[in-house]
Structures are given as C-alpha cells and as structure tokens.
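2 proteins. here.
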Amino acid sequence: MSDDDELLDPTDSAVVPRKTARRLASLDGKTITLLDISKAKGNHLLDRVEELLRERAHPRAIVRRKKPTYARPAPDDLRQEILQNSDAVIEALAD
C-alpha cells in the first residue's frame, strides 16, 4: 500500500481519509496483541498464529484480547488499551 491509497471505513457514513500504520521491520522483542473479533473459530486461527509467532518472531509478549461482538467496532477502552500497550496488532476473522 502506498501513501496515496485511499482507504474506506465501513463504519463511517462518509469517506474519511485514513492512514495506515508504519510497518515494523521485525516483530522480535515486540508486544503483539492478537485481537479476536468474536467470529466463530477465530480463536482457533489465533491459536495457530500465536504458535507461529512464538516459533519465528520471538516477541517479548503476546497479548490476547477479544471484542464483545463482531457486529460493532471495538469499544474505545479496548482500542486505547491496545494502542497504549502494543507494538503490533493482528486481527483475526474466521468462520
């Protein structure tokens, strides 16, 4: 993705400019949050992602969080917690 790409947010009623986060050079030594959005079997996918991260990336910590429902954006307090305590976030969607 380039800096000129326009992202559309399905939670907004109008097009709002969005920027993507800078990519980390490595996940080694980082705190990674795995966010389960509460869809069926998302936890199984995240279990495997966590295994692979521990084998290959050697993070400082892996934190698991879960949204109350997939039908709405994550609550503000959850988003703030992730923002303050994580270097990276991986969000899982599975059915």
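next one coming up
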Amino acid sequence: MTALLLVLALVAPTSLDLPPEIVMPATADAPAERVDPPPPPVEELPTVAPGGMSNCAEMSWYRQRAGLPARFDRIGWRESNCRNEEGVHTSCCYGWWQLNVGLHLRDHRLAGRYAACGVSSRFDVDSDTPGDKLRQACAAKALYDTVGMSAWSTS
C-alpha cells in the first residue's frame, strides 16, 4: 500500500494549473458572436380562423394552416363553392375538398393519418364547426401527401 502511495506521489502534479488572475476589466475589440444561438421561436398559429371572413377566405386560411398548396383554393371552389357544412356533399364525399372519408379510412396508407387528424367518420369533417374545418384541412393534407393530386383529378 505504501508503494502505491509513493507511485502516486511521484506521478501526481505538485501544483494545480489555475487560470491567470485578471487584474483589469476585459475589453472587447469586436462584437461578440454567439456560437450556438437558440432556435428561432415557433409561431403559434391560432386554431380558429378570425371572424368575419368570407367562405373562400376562411377555407384558404385553413388550407394554409394545414400546409396545402394554393391550388386547393381553386379545388375547394370547384368542389364545394368554399362551403364546409352539413349538406355539402356528393354521394360519397364531404366538405371543402369533397373527401371520400369512408374509402380513405379503409386505405392502410391513410387510416392512421386520418386518425391523427381526429377523423374517424364523415361526421368529423362535414359541419361548420372550427373543429370540423381543422380536421377537413388536416385530412386533405394527409390525402395529398399520400396520393398527390390524383384524388382531385377530373378525368
């Protein structure tokens, strides 16, 4: 044991390296540059469109919030006259962008994405409530990301 202490005494430094003491205040000759700046703040978007908007302006607001391209403003006009309310449907499809929710929920590529949007039936996307409008836009974005424009082709 004493041999071990003797080896440690020979190997260990006898003094600690301390930073030099600063005698006068430091001065800068250039502006400081942050090496690791914080990420920019994430803008919190409101979940409900501002009041007083026309049907088309409101549809466009929800479209933009969902991340759909501007082309969906024209599609929404063609498909629903910019109306997302009970009664705006064809034999299969509902809402601004006439989503065939029943078919989409059976598609393994879309079912999970629709569920993430809160869509489990057509009743989740076809009324005039802000929640249904959010879900309609979210589901349209899921469909667009999965199959592109083919769901809205006219041929």
